[in-house]
Amino acid sequence: MIKRIQATMMHRMGGRLRPAKVCALRAACFSAVALSIVTGILNAPFMQAQSQTEPKASFEVASIKIAENCGNTVPGFPMKIPSGPSYQAGGRYTTCSQLSYIIRKAYQVDIFSQFKGFPGWSEDILYKIEAKAGGNPDKEQMRLMVQSLLEERFKLKMHRETKDTPVYLLVIAKDGHKLQRAKDEKGNPIVSLPPPEQDPEKIRARRRTSYSSMEEMMAAMPPGSISIMGGLGSNELNAKAISTERLATALYSLVGMRRVIDKTGLTGLYDLKMTYSDSRNQPGASTATGSAPVVEPSAPTIFKALQEQLGLKLEEDKAALDEFVIDNVEKPSEN
Q1: pTM surpassing 0.85?
Q2: Residue 75: which of 36, 27, 128, 108 has the closest Cα?
Q3: Coil, helix or strand at residue 243
């Protein structure tokens, strides 16, 4: 489960609370990181890796090294947290991630498409890649260069298959939804989101900010963001100005890594707050290290919480989803 969650992780908005809240937040690290995400992968377009009929351009120089960590750590949490790709002016590309994540971003494979055939070693290694292209290529051009790098240095070969896969449909419950339209400080409905923050320094500064209360931290969340916090027995999901489509995407990691498709027909942006129990901490749940501690849930399941608190419902169904089969991949030599 941890290895699968690693593939969904990237960015997350949140700040440090004061000592009174720290213990509860550490207990919720697993849930917070599992969703994290906030933005990057969860918002990835549903695209397919495509074979190229013309030779792809390559970087002039590229360095690949194994990294112990990527500088992203959570106290007391052993998971290796990756850093996503950075496409910089002047043809500079950097990333520090597991191979599967690097491939996802390079070929624009969305979060719902599964990989098949990865060797066991691939998820236990963090690769730090730094590359430089000639001229001043744009992001799309450099993404194709990353594909060339993977095919040349990792000897990557893969193909796409489509198969019927269990999914959930997010629909409006029988008695109607209970969603509240998002409003700005003047009380006017929020109809569009500002562009995401791109300045790394501002993002890091926001993450370092300390808040005196949970309410203060939630108020500081930018529109379009989702946060999960809590402790043993229950979690609290807070979202500001998100669509039901975005909610469906975020539910992926909360319902057993199964794709959730928005069928509500609702448009607009909503503020959400939902308290639910974390099944990983309930009797009988298992973890990567063995049996989980027995904790009596203090909140309803995610399925019941959606219906009771938001007026939404999850229905089981099947859909044709992409699966990418790894035909060959090798460890590259470091340089």
Answers
A1: no
A2: 27
A3: coil
